[in-house]
């Protein structure tokens, strides 16, 4: 065993010994080594063998040896099972970490996934992990046995299971980012070549993260649809080679190749000559005075196993470092050919890099609005607390095209309830908020006008019609009147007003669909009048405390948690009105207090 296995009179707990005795009830299980303490990992481990009367498969033998690790606080803590170095499985399977042999450890790195919430392999049912002393360890070993059977039968994954990418061996710290979705998948399908070059730009100076600006296909540049934040980058530029292949580049059953020999074998089966690919595209870049840094292999993937592919995913590795070779002229094509053959010799290891898909639908797939409004253009008038919180929520929910209109400057007093930070103090609110929104998602395209609505309308009377949705967050009757005048003139857009009442006890969400024909200011005032009277009564007597302070003032009394809570609820009703709204509506979201002044919940009212 390892020299770091320190016993020093330590004995496994009574709970672990009881749990270990339960394992003897499992058919096919036998104990090889009872619990020992690993001082480095600070875990207990035992070694066991699983013997199964199954037809021997290519990757799983009838007898396999495993290491089980458990925390000292069993039945709490973590439990993990990994293959033995000598008698364990050597391949990497689905539902397993990369299975790498170690010269310093007695076990491989390929921890198997036993707590899969989809259920056991071959049976679509939810299996809850027990937490009792008697059952938890036994449950894990029984799951290990089921995993082995499924691996032997090639049933670890089945039709309709979510597709999962294979685990990688240790990779470099370099990250290469792409943007792929269903639309780009169709574009790639129409391409009549399977290789080319690309350009990537560093995201910032502190990390090795590069974003692909464009792919070059048949001398044409296909730019990725990045937003303002990324298209304006002026950092270091690197170049690379891309190649589309037919299938994911893995060794059976699910192992990423580590050597060029393994990768060449995989690619040859897909009619791709790796050395020729690197030579041809390297020559293309060198003619432009450029040196390749990366290689990308793209392949089609489906959302679920058995479905048709709908996305291109990319794996990447560092372009192999070319050695110095004497006996050739510097511009001799055979020099590069020889260098590439030496750099990618079969015994050389591939230096994989991390690749990520930053497509907006991928990044916020678990948190989008029900109706996709990402292509709609939105104008936010007023970049204060309410407006900034509201528009930030919409951007995080998938809105990409936003213009911010405000003439005010960020002040220190704003910090208690604004999404901006001290770095923005002294800047124009519109510009600072727009820059902040551009930094949320890579595809966001936010612009700004450091001006009032009156000023922009004087320059362009049809300014508001360039937007699909206009959101007024100023709380100003003058702004409301200016917008109402344009609506009365026949201009069409979905209008929204957002504001809070005194102490942010209430949130007022007014929505007016495109086809509504009411007079905006009159309808709004009629609907909100009684609520403003309630606010007036609440604020009575506070004049001395906030003398001369209006709702626009940075010290106006309102807490950020109240604004965020009310805004979060308002977004739900905004979304409903976008989808279903047929007439103007005022939704009032109010906090509820008990007789002792304690907050108890929210109340919603419609006008």
Secondary-structure map with pairings?
Elements: H1 14-22, E1 29-38, E2 43-51, E3 63-70, E4 79-83, H2 136-153, E5 175-178, H3 182-189, E6 195-202, E7 209-217, E8 220-223, H4 228-231, E9 237-244, H5 260-268, H6 274-287, E10 292-301, E11 311-318, H7 333-343, E12 352-357, H8 360-363, E13 377-381, H9 385-396, E14 401-405, H10 429-438, E15 445-449, H11 453-459, E16 469-472, H12 477-488, E17 494-500, E18 506-512, H13 520-539, H14 560-580, E19 585-593, E20 599-606
Parallel strand pairs: 5-7, 5-12, 9-10, 13-14, 13-16, 14-15, 16-17
Antiparallel strand pairs: 1-2, 2-3, 3-4, 6-7, 6-9, 7-8, 10-11, 11-12, 17-18, 18-19, 19-20
Helix pairs in contact: 6-7, 9-14
Main β sheet profile: 8 strands, mixed
Show unreliable segments.
543-555
How would you write the strand order of the largest sheet?
A: 15-14-13-16-17-18-19-20
Shape: globular
Percentage of residues in strands: 15-25%
CATH class of the largest domain: Alpha Beta
Detailed description of the structure:
With 607 residues, the protein is α/β, with parallel strands linked by helices. The protein folds into three domains: 14-153, Ubiquitin Conjugating Enzyme (Roll); 175-358; 377-606, Rossmann fold. 26% of the residues lie in helices and 23% in strands. The protein has 14 helices and 20 strands. The chain has helices at 14-22, 136-153, 182-189, 228-231, 260-268, 274-287, 333-343, 360-363, 385-396, 429-438, 453-459, 477-488, 520-539, 560-580; strands spanning 29-38, 43-51, 63-70, 79-83, 175-178, 195-202, 209-217, 220-223, 237-244, 292-301, 311-318, 352-357, 377-381, 401-405, 445-449, 469-472, 494-500, 506-512, 585-593, 599-606. The strands form three sheets. Strands 15-14-13-16-17-18-19-20 form an eight-stranded mixed sheet, sandwiched between helices. Strand 13 (377-381), helix 9 (385-396) and strand 14 form a beta-alpha-beta unit. The radius of gyration is 31 Å and the shape is globular. Residues 543-555 have low confidence and may be disordered.
